[in-house]
Design brief:
231 residues, mainly beta, Porin, two-stranded antiparallel ribbon, 10% helix
């Protein structure tokens, strides 16, 4: 199933590049504001660092949910299809403490984790009612490249050195490819549009042995309102 999804996403990305639209094609520049929710613990990639940390740190996986903003450029090719290139931004810092350990003075051992995601999506969408309809439901697939940065900083317990407590910071970053699926509805006029959209990203990145898990799941759901300028 994942191979089929990946091939469909790659084909969608190629269509954006190869589907050269005429100069008179409808174009839209969208701005979006919404909420990003990470995958739940049972749906995350195997050996995910967030799940691994939750076994000894007091926080919820859902604490990484947060606000997101974005923008997108859409170009029609034919009456029922659009290609799009868009980018989003989400960053969330999650505080935590160790469940079973304290500093020698009896205070909590405090640590923060921070996740930043900047997905760039290349999508193709289908509009069943066509470009001319004032009400335009749509759905689509595409490829994504997620620029990400994950860090853990604060106090740590070294279980390999007699549970020694030390201050530190561990950082990983990169750009990871993946797939995106979307669906939504917009209300379109001659010069503008407004609507609501849901996106699902599938991507995960490798981490070094500095972290409790060897992978970082970058996927999840984005629920967002959109406002567009059409020309």
């Amino acid at each position: 199933m994942s191979n089929v999804f990946s091939r469909a996403a790659a084909a969608a990305a190629c269509a954006v590049v190869l589907g050269a639209a005429p100069a008179s094609a409808q174009q839209t520049v969208n701005l979006s504001l919404g909420y990003f929710t990470v995958k739940g613990e049972d749906a995350r990639v195997r050996d995910d660092v967030v799940v691994a940390n939750s076994r000894f740190l007091a926080f919820d996986v859902s604490d990484f949910n947060g606000a997101t903003i974005g923008g997108e450029w859409l170009v029609s090719f034919g009456r029922f299809f659009e290609g799009g290139v868009g980018v989003g931004f989400t960053r969330k810092t999650v505080p935590s403490v160790y469940y079973d350990y304290e500093d020698p003075d009896g205070t909590e051992i405090e640590q923060d984790a921070r996740l930043r995601r900047v997905p760039m999506d290349f999508t193709v969408r289908v509009l069943p009612f066509g470009q001319g309809s004032p009400i335009q439901p749509y759905f689509g697939l595409g490829a994504t490249a997620v620029a990400w940065r994950y860090s853990e900083f604060g106090e740590f317990v070294n279980f390999d050195a007699g549970r020694q407590i030390f201050d530190g910071e561990f950082v990983a970053s990169g750009v990871q490819g993946g797939a995106v699926a979307l669906g939504g509805i917009r209300f379109a006029g001659q010069g503008g549009s407004a609507g609501f959209e849901v996106r699902y990203h599938k991507a995960d990145a490798p981490l070094s042995s500095d972290f409790a898990g060897s992978r970082l799941d970058l996927g999840g759901w984005t629920y967002q309102f959109t406002a567009g300028l059409r020309f």
